[in-house]
Amino acid sequence: MAKHWKLALTIVAGLAVGAGSAAWSMKRGGLSGVGAGGWYGNSVTGSVDADPWTRARVALTGLLALNKSQAIYFTTNVDAAGARLREDCRYRVAGAALPARWWSVTVYADDDYLPLNDDDALSFDATEVKPDAAGQWTALVAPQRAGEGAWASSRKAGDYSLTLRLYQPAKSAQDDYASIPMPSVTRIDCGGAA
Amino acid sequence: MNAGLKYALAFALAAGAGHVGTIVAAPFAIMHVVTGKMSQDRTAINRFVFGERVTQNSRNVVRPSPDLAYSSCVYDLSEGPLLVTAPPSPDNGYVSLSVFDARTDNTAVFDSSQFPQGIRFVLAREGQAVAGGDPVVRTSHDTGVILDRRLAPTAERFAAVDKARRMNSCAPL
Lengths: 194, 173
What we know:
- The structure holds 2 protein chains of 2 kinds.
- Chain A has helices at residues 2-28, 52-61, 171-175; strands at 71-76, 89-95, 100-108, 123-125, 137-142, 151-153, 161-169, 184-190.
- Chain A is α+β, with helices and mostly antiparallel strands.
- Chain A has a single domain, classed as Domain of unknown function DUF1214, C-terminal domain (Jelly Rolls), CATH 2.60.120.
- The termini of chain B are far apart.
- A 5-stranded antiparallel beta sheet of chain B has the order 1-2-8-4-5, sandwiched between helices. In chain B, strands 7-6-3-9 form a 4-stranded mixed beta sheet, with no helix packed on it.
- Chain B has one domain: Domain of unknown function DUF1254 (Immunoglobulin-like), CATH 2.60.40.
- The radius of gyration of chain B is 20 Å and the shape is globular.
- The mean pLDDT of chain B is 93.
- Classes of the chains: A alpha+beta, B alpha+beta.
- The interface between A and B is large, with 59 and 52 residues.
- Chain A: This is DUF1214 domain-containing protein.
- Chain A: Residues 70-170 form the DUF1214 domain.
């Protein structure tokens, strides 16, 4: 009898460890995919072709994501130097023209929801940046606005991530994510340092 | 087989089953919870519900875009197909209707570039008879959600597209 109980407990423990590893994989395993400068995106997000692990991760961290014919999503939680994005730091996001009808960059706290601040600046988009003659644009992600340019607030975001959405992407971008000129995310300073 | 090996094997098999089972079941479970919230505890099925402007307090779905106006129709095809329609935004801004099944797959999407005069399609379960000439989206699950996204990055734009989306329809044929 004791042997049966021991076996049952072993199986229950195995199931619990397996479920726990799945939960960890969904939340912390990340999405494999193509990107640059810390950005990653998966071409089967939202697709019926997604493998079960990708589908589960998207369900938990990006539910109701569109497939790539309509939108391409990239996310990063690190700056260009590979350091974790932090609420108390200021970052310059800079890039070139993006191959889409419209795009936006949004700040998300570590719980995958918008940061709990009332700055009404949770993102910046293609209509807010001011490209120069060469098509280059810059924006600021920081806990406080500085100047007149495009700004997304990271106040109360903790350790956060940025999501780039490309709506109605060009066919060339859909076919080859590596061809998309990803914006750079460069740390300016931290903790209010000048 | 010695006892230690037997227990190790049982543990490994159970861990594998627990891992794979959770991964496969999670999308269905998450979708069930989210569509329950969207449909006001399943009292609003086969009709659109119009979300407020996305703010820091929006908590129904992870990673909402603050630049979009969202509307949702949680559907149940067990009684038959649905006719889904959505007019354009007044400024011809971006509109899309996307169909997600119970497994979270985005099975179809229509947008305002393809259909500038408005979006119209029939959603039916595989095998259900459909008459008429509207585009038909087939799904292998009875339940899921249709999401209307409209570009509305400012309060003014949100107010404008809100009027248009109130004409959306998601109802049995």
